[in-house]
Amino acid sequence: MNIKLFRDIKSLLLIAIITGAVASCNKPFPDGVPIPYPDANNSSVTLGTVISTDTTYSIFKAAAIRVGILPTLMDSSKIFTVFLPNNAAFRASGIASEAVIGVLPITSVGAIVNYHIVPGEQFLSSSIPTDFPNIQLPTALTIGVLPGTSVPLKMTIFPSKRANGTWVNTIPIVSPDNKYRNGVIHVMAAIVNPPSQVLKDAMYSNPNLKYFKAAIARADSGANGLSKLDSLLGYGVTNMTVLAPNDAAFQTLIYGTVYAYVLGLTNDPATAATQAAALSSSPTVFSNPALYGVLTAATVKGILAYHFLATNQGLGYQPNIRVLSNNFATTPGVFYTTLVNTSIPASLQPGVMAQATFTGPFVSTLTFKGAGTFPPGGAPYSQTATAVSKDNIAVNGVFYIIDKVLLPQ
Question: Cys bridge to 344: 176, 219, 222, 349, which one at CB 3.0-4.6 A?
Answer without folding.
Answer: 349
